[in-house]
Design goal:
There is one protein chain. With about 180 residues, the protein is mainly α. The chain has a domain of about 100 residues. It contains 7 helices and no strands. Helix 5 packs across helix 7. It is elongated and about 140 Å long. About 5% of the residues have low confidence.
Length: about 180
Amino acid sequence: MSAWEKTLRPSTPNTALRARAAGFHVSGNSAPIPVYDALRDRNLDDFWASPATRAHFHNMGLMADDGSLISMVEYRQKLYVVEREMDRAEQLRERMAYRKQQMEIYQMARRKSEIMKARRAQEIRELKTERISAREAARPGSHHHHCLVAHKQLGGPALCGECMGIALAFPRNNTINM
């Protein structure tokens, strides 16, 4: 027994009625029911021609520019296509905005990295310059060497203004060999 047969009422217990139902045969063939389209019905031409109905359909967007009526099926299909295109355009705009945002974030990170590299390179150059100046100052016979010796012997500020920066460049634990 199929699923649709289960939904039918049970057969009658009367055998005469069952025999009569078993002998019932239709000689006609099945055919599809024709589709009714009210917009194409010639009997409704006066209704569609009325100004109030035409104004209503025009406001609803169911009337073409030439005055012909658009069927609801065609209108829905056209509306579906338009909505789908609008959705795609919105998705494209969102994707482009996201890409632009990601590009800005990437560029900001890259600029920050470049700035940090430049700062570090500048710090290294300054450190090298200070170390070279300190090495020259510590070399016997230089003007700065005499200031450093005086500073070490006096234990205080016997340095000239130029030598103060060089003295600060020396690490605290290092001593100057003389």
